[in-house]
Model the fold of this input.
Amino acid sequence: MNLLINLDNRCHLSNNGNRMRKELSKATNMNRIRKSVKTQLRYFFRRNGCLRAPNRARREQEGQNYKKGYEIRFVANNGKELLKIRSLLSKAGFKSGKPYSKRSQFVQPVYGKIFYEQFRKFIQECL
Done:
């Protein structure tokens, strides 16, 4: 409600009412897109995705020889789903890695501790 009041106030200050209406509709669409992106990412992850984090004990024990890092995996049943997942990740601001095939499915990884922590936080909010 507060946002609409602020936009209305700015609209009264502006001579160009059409421009303000367009900005308002763009903001509304962006909110809708973000919600749908989150919903779809949540669906693909809950269906058969996983989060992988390095084993701290092994990292301390083996040092540089232990190469495992932070990873989010999304599994697509076909190429069309893979493209959809890649598009959703891009819209959400995640940098996706190179997809690979595993059996008759495709795996879309996202690497990095920052992305891992952001996505983990997002998933916990959804539960």
In short: Residues 36-126 form a domain with the Endonuclease I-creI fold (CATH 3.10.28.10). Residues 17-48 form the longest helix (32 residues). The CA atoms of residues 33 and 108 lie 21 Å apart.
